[in-house]
């Protein structure tokens, strides 16, 4: 019984971690797009 509970908790933490990294990846991608857009605007002005 203890093994089942431990396995369930471990699976929960792993799946939660995957969602967190997915969200982090989306945030980094959004920030990269913003930087690219700003760089393109500056380049057009020059």
Automatic annotation (TrEMBL):
PROSITE patterns: PROKAR_LIPOPROTEIN. It holds the Pfam family Entericidin. GO terms for biological process: response to toxic substance. One of its GO terms (cellular component) is membrane. Signal peptide: none annotated. Keywords: Cell membrane, Lipoprotein, Membrane, Palmitate, Signal. Belongs to the EcnA/EcnB lipoprotein family. This is Entericidin A/B family lipoprotein. It comes from Psychrobacter frigidicola.
């Amino acid at each position: 019984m203890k093994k089942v509970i431990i396995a369930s908790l471990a699976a929960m933490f792993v799946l939660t971690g995957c969602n967190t990294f997915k969200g982090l990846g989306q945030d980094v991608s959004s920030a990269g797009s913003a930087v690219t857009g700003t760089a393109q605007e500056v380049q057009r002005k020059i």
